[in-house]
Amino acid sequence: MIRKYEGNPVVKPADVKPSIGGYHVKGALNPGATECNGEILLLLRVAENCEPKKGFVRVPTYRFDAGPARPDIMEWKADDPSIQLKDTRGVVFRGQDYLSTMSHIRLARSRDGFHFTVDEHPFIYPADETEKYGCEDARVTKIGDRYYINYTAVSQDSWATKLAVTKDFRTIERLGFIFHPENKDVAIFPEKVGGLYHALHRPNNSGFGRASIWYAESPDLLHWGNHRCIVRPLNTKWEAMKIGGGAPPIKTKDGWLVIAHGKGEGSLYSIFLVLLDLEQPWKVIKRAERPILTPTEKYETQGFFANVVFSNGVVEKDGELLIYYGAADESSCVAVTRVADLLNSF
Questions:
Q1: Is the pLDDT of residue 92 over 80?
Q2: Is residue 269 part of a domain?
Q3: Would you say residue 162 lies in a domain?
Q4: Whole-prediction pTM value?
Q5: CA 14 to chain centre
Q6: 88: confidence class by pLDDT, cuts 50, 70, 90
Q7: pLDDT (0 to 100) of residue 90
Q8: Mean of the pLDDT values across residues 34-58?
Q9: CA-based nearest residue to 290, from 236, 214, 224, 211
Q10: What's the pLDDT score for residue 96?
Q11: Do 256 and 278 form a contact (C-beta atoms < 8 A)?
Q12: CB 315 within 8 Å of CB 292
């Protein structure tokens, strides 16, 4: 039903040029995907940390104080009593949090969908204090001749979802927040239904349940309402912790095909299918109880965060469906299938 490409990973950290000298690329992961002007484009999440310097603690940062935002390095002497090593991802200095890695969105380009070259410079990167800790996990939806890109903006105010738009992937217009903290895993449908735009989203749940897939609708892609929870985690080892959406839904004869993810026992991430009604996309027709893709290969079971497959983007090409996914929070891969095979798998 589904085949992992034998040449995986298609993009590795070593394929990506660091943003500045002194940075080191730790991950090229969780790509959004689309087709534009005969190219398949991946919108990689590029995670960078700092090259080590003996006797110092160093973290990547962005400066917003003079002109356009620019990447930089902050460093302190390792024996400074004001430093607290929070965990593997964080440093606290004089009460201020900093991340050990900073993410931005970088483009990778391919003619065949399997062999990619990565642009030298970031495409979407922190532009102001609301993105102070990075831009992560882009999804791309083409509507008409415009490509709408939503991504997770991370700051001291937590994480939330922003929207940008482009026609050519050379320039972008930032449209601001569309879902407030804490909300991400947003997937926008590729066309209006009933005169409205539709999206899936995943608000955090720190209350009585587990994070689930929600639905929302909008007249203009900016203002979202009529929120409702439509898919909750099953009590299985695959979805024991939470679930969330992935790539923009695919329109099929049977309904909107959604590629989702589940976080299960041992923090294992897998990829699932959900089918929604074409005319009432908040209605679930079918959902798979078992994943279509799990971590089995070394590049999926070993890495920055082991046992992860996580998809943000799909492209239909020559009758096949290319599912692009992040592996072990480190590299980007592709699996090949057909829409008909996925529909028959429920």
A1: yes
A2: yes
A3: yes
A4: 0.97
A5: 20
A6: low
A7: 84
A8: 96
A9: 236
A10: 87
A11: yes
A12: no
Could you list the residue range(s) of the whole structural domain that residue 181 is in? 2-48+106-343
Is residue 121 in some structural domain? yes
- Joined together, the tokens standing for residue 12 give 């590795």
**Tally of domains in the chain:** 1
Amino acid at 33: A
Mean pLDDT of the chain: 96
Among residues 260, 267, 258, 273, the alpha carbon closest in space to that of 308 is found at 267
Residue 276 and residue 251: Cα distance in Å, rounded? 10
Alpha helices, H only, the chain: 298-301, 339-343
Tokens of 236: 């299985």
Q: How far is Cα 156 from Cα 43, in angstroms, rounded to an integer? A: 24
- SS3 for 64-109 is CCCCCCEEEEEEEECCCCCEEEEECCEEEECCEEEECCEEEEEEEE
Structure confidence by residue, pLDDT tens digits, 262-301: 999 999 999 999 999 999 999 999 999 999 999 999 999 9
- How is residue 226 written in tokens? 């009529």
Is 346 in contact with 288 (CB distance < 8 Å)?
Answer: yes
> How far apart are alpha carbons 101 and 59 in whole angstroms?
7
> What is the CATH number for 118?
2.115.10.20
Question: Is residue 77 assigned to a domain?
Answer: no
Give the integer Cα–Cα distance in Å for 84 and 73: 17
